[in-house]
């Protein structure tokens, strides 16, 4: 991790704008808590990725939340490329100040440069691939810091470093850790998988029980998450010796279905304040 941080610091010196990738389902929990200190005054574009899995109405509220705080933000789906078209123009606009300052000091104008940062599994690689699409032209003569790193030219002459910066999520708050586990940002083995699934069941029961009830044909959602896992195990035929419901396998099954959007479009972090 120390090496990754050092590399990130080196790469940040090469760019004008940072694209901060967040998970649209957990815009707070997927944020690196030290991001402001890491980036300093560097212009930043917030991208709420996986917007296809998040509640669209809540995503709009999140975009407004960032906008009020003076941070440009967009929502995208990197699996289809939806929303990505705006990125080069926004990077160009956000780079303008720095490039103009260089020009006013007698330097030649140059292409705006950006890089992507985000926590593990937030979709950095897919986002870069979707952004680059088939228009990839590598500007080979000016490599990044690491061997093998390249700049990729996007629309409007914007250059993107092909290697994203990996940030670390915050684990010490249990709620945040559970949200990271539910969405797949941290390995569920860090936790007891049944605890994670039971927490998700509790959250869904409170906020949007319908898809859960319909998908697993539940007449009601029992009070305890583990009872729900037992019912899911029965519905899906996940039984152990003697026909005992296998709640461990039910937990894994539920998390997989949730992550694939089978339980509806759900946002676990609400904007407030
Ligand atoms: N539904 C959906 N899935 C996405 C989206 N973006 C990424 N994914 C999925 O999320 C998972 C992680 O994507 P990656 O691009 O590998 O994430 P990453 O940030 O590069 O992950 P690391 O390299 O491990 O840090 C993959 O299964 C992707 O298919 C999105 O916008 N929508
Ligand atoms: Mg990756």
From TrEMBL:
The entry marks the following residues as binding GTP, namely 49-52, 165
Task: Tell me the ranges covered by the CP-type G domain, including all copies.
Answer: 4-169
This entry carries the following GO cellular component terms, namely: cytoplasm
Pfam families from the UniProt entry: MMR_HSR1
Q: Where in the cell is it found?
A: Cytoplasm
**Record keywords: Protein biosynthesis included?**
no
GO terms (BP aspect) = translation
An example molecular function term from Gene Ontology annotations: GTP binding
Q: Its domain of life? A: Bacteria
Q: Which UniProt keywords apply?
A: Cytoplasm, GTP-binding, Nucleotide-binding
Q: Is this entry keyworded Nucleotide-binding?
A: yes
Q: What is this protein called?
A: Ribosome biogenesis GTPase A
Q: What phylogenetic lineage does the species belong to?
A: Bacteria, Bacillati, Bacillota, Clostridia, Eubacteriales
């Amino acid at each position: 991790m120390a090496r990754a941080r050092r590399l990130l610091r080196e790469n940040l010196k090469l760019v004008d704008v940072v694209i901060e990738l967040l998970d649209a389902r957990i815009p707070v929990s997927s944020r690196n808590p030290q991001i402001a200190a890491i980036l300093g005054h560097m212009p930043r574009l917030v991208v709420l990725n996986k917007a296809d899995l998040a509640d669209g109405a809540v995503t709009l509220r999140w975009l407004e939340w960032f906008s009020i705080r003076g941070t440009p933000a967009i929502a995208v789906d990197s699996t289809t490329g939806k929303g990505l078209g705006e990125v080069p123009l926004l990077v160009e606009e956000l780079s303008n100040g720095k490039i103009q300052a260089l020009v006013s000091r007698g330097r030649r104008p140059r292409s705006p440069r950006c890089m992507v940062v985000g926590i593990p599994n937030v979709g950095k690689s897919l986002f870069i691939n979707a952004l680059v699409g088939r228009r990839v032209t590598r500007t080979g003569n000016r490599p990044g810091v690491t061997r093998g790193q390249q700049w990729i030219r996007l629309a409007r002459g914007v250059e993107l470093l092909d290697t994203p910066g990996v940030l670390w999520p915050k684990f010490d708050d249990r709620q945040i850790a559970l949200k990271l586990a539910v969405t797949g940002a941290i390995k569920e083995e860090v936790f007891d998988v049944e605890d994670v699934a039971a927490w998700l069941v509790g959250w869904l029961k409170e906020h949007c029980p319908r898809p859960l009830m319909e998908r697993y044909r539940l007449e009601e959602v029992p009070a305890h998450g583990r009872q729900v896992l037992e019912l899911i195990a029965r519905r899906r035929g996940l039984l152990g010796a003697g026909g005992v419901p296998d709640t461990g396998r039910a937990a894994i099954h539920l998390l997989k279905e949730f992550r694939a959007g089978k339980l509806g479009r759900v946002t676990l972090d609400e904007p407030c304040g």
